[in-house]
Predict the structure.
Amino acid sequence: MNIKEICKDAERIGIGGHIRPDGDCVGSCLGLSLYLKKLFPAKEVKVFLEKPSDIFSCIKGFRDIVILGKEVPKEAEFDVFFAVDCGKERLGSAERLFDKAKTTVNIDHHVSNADGTGMYNYIYPEASSASELVYELVEEDMLDADIAAALYTGIVHDTGVFRYSCTSPKTMQAAAKLISYGFDFSKLIEETFYEKTYVQNQVMGRALLESMLIMDGKCIVSYINRKTMEFYQVTGADLEGIVSQLKLTKGAECAVFMYEIRTMQYKVSLRSGEKVNVAKIAELFGGGGHVRAAGCTMNGTFYDVINNLSVHIEEQLEEAGA
Ligand code: 5GP
Ligand code: MN
């Protein structure tokens, strides 16, 4: 796929990423927009996202992001609209902008979006991140420290700092090239990935303290309800990293973390080791993601949700002979 060719006659270009944007979503969308602005200084390029965490404010272009609310933004038709790190149905209120655009492009690495939802699709589930895919599409002589830092952020976040099995030699080659542009990558990793506020750590502590081992310790589950979130004054974005911490528990093949988004409705995060395909389970409940990291939204109490999920986790563990 040739982005330059697709965009050459466009006057207005839009870019959107998934609801509840994470590091890869923000990094890939901003990396792509910085590239397009550099390639075509005369064109209008706009990024639409739900409010991302301020930890990503170090990425160039962060302040120019159009923050999505429930209403579709009042925007004239775009000539080209990109859905990055998701299919069009997870663009939130930007989905209408995608639908109205003359040309649509989908760049994604989610196995649950294997067919793509654009007129042009660049979908590789084996890629570590959408940022790695944007890196592949960017012309090398256009790269600079700002674009590199954006894409590097995305790769770092979706690979858990190059730890997860989605990390490939290609990922490391991309990262090697990106750091050669000379941005402070240690600071970037520290400040966007590891650093937590005091209250974020406290909530993580609560979730760990109240976690439960089920299935003979092969699965670990925990949750945070609305009352606790209100008490600590935290939002979903503050809970990032809890599920990965749970997954570090020795013997746990699978980790489930959920937080209440409204009464009796939970945003569920699933992580797995080698035996459970969590994308398959999330898809059963209307969600999706990757084989080792996926999510969905489910109704009921914490126990209802765990009961519904555990049948499928157990089934897969048994099939794998665990
Ligand atoms: P997380 O648990 O960090 O929210 O998400 C893990 C992975 O699954 C991410 O790649 C995320 O984009 C994807 N994911 C999370 N929730 C959903 C969902 O409801 N639907 C789909 N299709 N993907 C999801
Ligand atoms: Mn991603």
User: Anything to note?
Assistant: The radius of gyration is 19 Å. Residues 18, 90, 110, 112, 243, 269, 287-290, 293-297 surround guanosine-5'-monophosphate (ligand 1) (CB under 6 Å). The mean pLDDT is 97. Residues 52 and 151 are 16 Å apart (CA to CA).
